[in-house]
Design goal:
The complex is a heterodimer of chains A (about 425) and B (about 525).
Chain A (H helix, E strand, L loop, with lengths): L4 H26 L5 E5 L6 E4 L4 E4 L3 E5 L6 H19 L6 H8 L2 E5 L5 E5 L4 H15 L15 E3 L2 E5 L2 E4 L8 E2 L8 E5 L3 E5 L2 H10 L1 H5 L1 E5 L6 H14 L3 E4 L4 H11 L9 H4 L5 E4 L2 H5 L2 H7 L2 H10 L15 H7 L1 E2 L2 H11 L1 H7 L3 H7 L14 H13 L1 E2 L2 H6 L2 H14 L6
Parallel strand pairs in A: 12-13, 12-14, 14-15
Antiparallel strand pairs in A: 1-4, 2-3, 5-6, 7-10, 7-13, 8-9, 8-11, 16-17
Helix pairs in contact in A: 1-2, 2-4, 3-4, 12-15, 14-15, 14-17, 15-17
Chain B lengths: L12 H7 L9 H18 L9 E8 L6 E8 L9 H6 L18 H13 L4 E6 L5 E10 L4 E11 L6 E9 L2 H18 L4 E5 L5 E4 L22 H9 L4 H8 L5 H11 L12 H13 L16 H12 L3 E6 L3 E3 L2 E11 L11 E6 L2 E3 L7 H9 L13 E9 L16 H39 L2 H12 L3 H23 L3 H9 L2 E3 L1
Parallel strand pairs in B: 1-7, 12-14
Antiparallel strand pairs in B: 1-2, 2-6, 3-4, 3-6, 4-5, 7-8, 9-11, 10-11, 11-14, 12-13
The chains are: A alpha+beta (about 425), B alpha+beta (about 525).
Chain lengths: ~425, ~525
């Protein structure tokens, strides 16, 4: 196997990190002390939104895992087993996937009980278990799995005026034909050689990405075009983050106009709730939501009507101060287009929306009695702090009121030219996006 | 009553028992076999352990007739023997003893063996054969004896003697009775086995008609202290006994002072004064009314010292434990001999043994109960016995950490100069409050000991379980860490061994389980890929 220099460096760095991190444990075992691993907690309750850096971060809580506690012994063992497998893979110049690691570590431990029975148990049974251990190791070591040369499926794609070195090859991402460069699972091993772009446009949907690509959008507007093809994977997020960090390029995110689309933007911007430990390296705090917003579809008429009622106005002001002083907003769709493109929201969209901005907003803005009863299930939900801004509350308020969603394709349906040459450039040039 | 004429006829005690044999336990051919074995064995034991002799008892049961269900039952002991001159009346004359001293014995007045002789005579017509000798006698004496039922006199059918060729003392009694051995067998086996549990200091051999031999070997050579004869306690006497005592003395006050225990001069004088009887009166001058008044006054005085327990011979905690250990090889055994107590002037001592686990048989929802009265196992009428009542109904065993089915046996021994039996069968003990209280206290005492043991055991088991749950991972942990830390294959093995050994030590220390146990578990680990 040939390995690039950057690869070898990454390997030796990772090996050293693992060895160093477990040295203290070995020393304490040798001096007959309690074998203890102290690992940051990955629970929701230990997920903190850092207002200053606008990131989701792991809190200060730690879990102590010792071999001497009957409830922790297995996890303790699994953690060390996984560390040793990863270490061996690094030594052997391999690139295991998390599934490979699951199989490599899965074996039967069989022992004889004191009354002579032979009992067997598996190191782990389901990949869910080994995946959990990998996450524990990431937070224990303070690195992402990619830095340990663990691969995952490639999902994100990119095209644009960008030259990179991946492995020992130099790749020009403006010469990919109708295809695109699949963002490798170890984006930190990518070296950016040359960038000639004004911004990064991240598109949720692969189909829209392809249409814009073939239309020559990125060439025309000097953009780097990225798609996450749905929920963004870690590599795509890291890749976007690097572009934002290293070239200070503005990042615009284009998603469907529905709570799931809004959440995808949120993941790019502040990180994922369940995997907050990665945010520090994966999130792009400066990412902007370009659309499609509810106000792009409906304008602000609906919202104005809601806040014309004083109790609603008061309640929304409490949630997001300044919401009534937002600049007016015109829709990009005519009322007849709206009629054609709007889809009715489903129950799970509704629930997702409540998770985003909280029950209070949902309660104030929802009129439909059926929807009102559905959101009741989520009573007590407070919403994500970073979305409780006037702009986002207005967006979701319109959603609750209209119970509508619109896909990006609807904008393209109005004509690809509209999307590429009018909608996107207009939004960027007029600053019509949400930060 | 006119028109009905009744003829009254004097009957001898022998005739009385002959007619009412069921009273003595000979109600059917099954019971007869059991009762015969029991009477003979108990006499054999009374002739040995009560005199400080470690009992060697041989029991043989043989089919004695081709046609009839006749069985020859022979019991041999190494006891003190019977003086040859009283052998005929000991076996051939039903006597009411005029003795009034008190001590704990198995049989009362030697009545049982005469019932055996009568029953044999009645069913097979064969005489009892007795061979006996005492320490110091130079000859061994042999008799064949019948009972003249009407006259209540022994008929010596055959008598002889021969010179001892070796020093031997003891008695061999042989009777032939009609019986149902097949159905009695299990009871007899139970009886002998249970006897051996209470008497681990006895050597007992049983040979059955089928030629099976059951041998219960002596496992302990300490005998319980034999009972000492004591005078009756004032609260324990009746009119009959009182007049017997009076008869043996020349004045009433002398009879009270010398014939009863716990009776001082001040008390005696006061009682006689209250009864209006002259202390120096001659006993035979008292009328029946005087006697009754005297008895009332004796009984109503309530400040006697309690009856002396010297007349009692408890088994002792060590003997009980040895017996239970021998019989069941339990993992836990405990015994308690309670302090002497008394009811109605009769001293008694309750002893309780408990065996748990090991070879102890499982009982479904209540402990198995072994009942003993004066060292005799009680096999029949279990349900109506106060011991059964206490052990099975009044103790919540779950409070003592026992979960059924459990390998749990309770042994309760009541010894007394007068065990309060229910009915004449002498197979179950009556619910006397003083006794009930002592039995309960005794059972709870051993139950508490069991609870402590079980709690400790559970704790140890928990520690072992914990050790197991941790130790099984040690090899994997050691291997993993050695892979990460070692810089060469060469170094790896040494590092692995060191980490493994240190972890074994730490886990042992933390769990409190011995290092070699932890090592054993870790060594048993096999990793199958």
């Amino acid at each position: 196997m040939t390995s690039s220099k950057i690869d070898l460096e990454a390997r030796s760095k990772a090996k050293e990190l693992i060895r160093k991190s477990f040295e203290a444990l070995v020393n304490s075992i040798v001096s007959k002390e309690r074998p203890l691993l102290v690992i940051p907690k990955r629970t929701l309750s230990n997920t903190i939104y850092d207002y200053k850096h606008k990131l989701l971060l792991l809190g200060p809580d730690v879990q102590k895992r010792t071999l001497l506690n009957i409830n922790e012994a297995k996890k303790f063992t699994q953690t060390l087993l996984m560390a040793s497998i990863i270490y061996e893979s690094l030594v052997n110049n391999e690139y295991p996937t998390i599934r490979d690691l699951y199989y490599r570590g899965k074996h039967t431990i069989s022992y004889r009980t004191l009354d002579g029975k032979r009992v067997s148990e598996n190191t782990w049974d389901e990949q869910r278990e080994s995946d959990g251990v990998i996450r524990d190791l990431e937070v224990y070591l303070g690195v992402l799995r990619e830095e340990l040369l663990i691969l995952s499926k490639e999902k994100g794609k990119v095209v644009g005026n960008l030259v990179i070195r991946s492995g020992d090859d130099v790749i020009d991402l403006s010469r990919m034909g109708h295809g695109a460069y699949a963002i490798e699972p170890t984006p930190d091993l990518i070296e950016f050689i040359d960038v000639d772009a004004e911004y990064v446009l991240v598109v949720e949907k692969d189909a829209v990405f392809q249409q814009l690509h073939r239309y020559g959008f990125w060439k025309k507007y000097k953009a780097i075009l990225v798609t996450s093809a749905g929920q963004p994977d870690r590599a795509t997020r890291r890749f976007v983050r690097r572009l934002s960090d290293e070239y200070k390029l503005p990042v615009y995110v284009l998603t469907d106009s529905d709570p799931y689309g809004f959440y995808i933007y949120s993941v790019f911007k502040v990180g994922s709730i369940t995997l907050s430990y990665e945010s520090e390296r994966l999130a792009t705090p400066r990412a902007k939501f370009i659309g499609v917003s509810m106000t792009d579809v409906f304008g602000d008429e609906v919202f104005k009507k809601i806040v014309s009622e004083s109790s609603a106005r008061k309640a929304l002001e409490e949630v997001a101060p300044g919401i009534t002083e937002l600049a007016p907003k015109k829709p990009y769709l005519s009322s007849s287009e709206r009629k054609n493109f709007v889809i009715k929201a489903k129950a799970r969209d509704l629930e997702r929306a409540v998770e985003l901005v909280g029950y209070r907003v949902a309660e104030v803005c929802t009129e439909d009695s059926d929807a009102k009863s559905k959101i009741k299930r989520k009573a007590g939900t407070t919403g994500y702090p970073w979305l409780l801004t006037p702009e986002w509350v207005r967006e979701l308020c319109i959603f609750f009121n209209t119970l509508s969603k619109v896909e990006i394709e609807a904008m393209a349906g109005k004509g690809l030219r509209f999307l590429a040459d009018e909608y996107i450039p207009a939004k960027i040039s007029t600053g019509d996006y949400i930060e | 009553m006119s028109g009905v004429s009744e003829t009254y006829k004097e009957i001898s005690p022998a005739e009385f028992f002959y007619k009412y044999r069921e009273i003595a336990g000979f109600s059917n051919p099954v019971r007869a076999v059991y009762q015969t074995v029991r009477e003979l064995v108990e006499n054999a034991l009374d002739a040995t352990d009560a005199y400080g002799i470690l009992p060697n008892i041989k029991i043989s049961i043989l089919k004695a007739d081709e046609v009839h269900d006749f069985y020859k039952i022979t019991v041999e002991d190494n006891g003190i023997g019977i003086p040859p001159n009283i052998v005929p009346s000991a076996f051939g004359k039903v006597l009411f003893s005029s003795k009034y001293v008190m001590r704990q014995t198995r049989g009362m007045y030697g009545l049982g063996v005469k019932m055996v002789v009568l029953y044999a005579q009645m069913t097979t017509g064969r005489p009892v054969e007795v061979t006996t000798s005492r320490k110091g006698l130079k000859r061994i004496y042999h008799f064949k004896i019948r009972i003249d039922v009407a006259k209540n006199e022994p008929i010596v059918v055959e008598a002889g003697s021969w010179k001892k060729s070796r020093e031997w003392h003891g008695t061999i009694v042989s009777v032939t009775i009609e019986g149902d051995w097949n159905r009695a067998k299990q009871r007899v086996l139970d009886y002998i086995q249970r006897t051996s549990i209470a008497l681990p200091y006895a050597d007992i051999v049983l040979t059955t008609p089928e030629g099976e031999i059951y041998y219960y070997q002596r496992v302990i050579s300490d005998l319980p202290k034999p009972p000492v004869e004591t005078k009756p306690h004032p609260l324990g006497i009746d009119l009959e006994l009182l007049s017997n005592i009076l008869k043996m003395h020349s004045t009433v006050i002398e009879a009270l002072l010398n014939g009863l225990q716990s009776m001082g001069e001040v008390t005696a004088t006061r009682i006689l004064k209250e009864a209006g009887i002259d202390p120096s009166a001659r006993p035979d001058s008292l009328s029946q009314d005087d006697l009754l008044r005297l008895l009332d006054k004796i009984r109503s005085y309530d400040n006697y010292r309690p009856p002396s327990p010297k007349a009692l011979s408890p088994l002792g905690e060590e003997v009980i434990k040895a017996g239970l250990k021998k019989a069941f090889k339990p993992e836990f055994v405990e015994a308690v001999t309670r302090k002497p107590s008394s009811y109605s002037g009769h001293p008694f001592i309750v002893e309780v043994g408990i065996a748990y686990g090991g070879g102890t048989p499982l009982s479904e929802d209540k402990p198995i109960v072994l009942r003993y009265a004066n060292k005799i196992p009680l096999l029949y009428d279990e349900g109506s016995d106060v011991i059964t009542q206490v052990v099975r109904e009044e103790v919540n065993w779950e409070n003592y950490l026992v979960t059924f089915p459990a390998p749990l046996i309770l042994m309760v021994h009541v010894c007394s100069t007068k065990v309060p039996f229910k009915g004449v069968g002498k197979e179950s003990i009556a619910d006397v409050p003083e006794l009930h209280k002592e039995i309960k206290a005794g059972v709870m005492e051993v139950a508490r000991a069991l609870k402590l043991y079980l709690a400790k055991k559970a704790k140890e088991e928990e520690a072992l379980k914990k050790a197991e749950a941790i130790a099984k991972y040690i090899p994997e942990v050691a291997r993993s860490l050695a892979v990460i830390i070692s810089s060469s294959d060469h170094e790896r093995e040494g590092l692995r061994a060191e980490i493994l050994n240190k972890l074994l030590y730490t886990v042992s220390k933390k769990t409190g389980v011995q290092l070699d146990v932890i090592k054993k578990i870790a060594d048993s680990v096999e990793a199958e890929t």
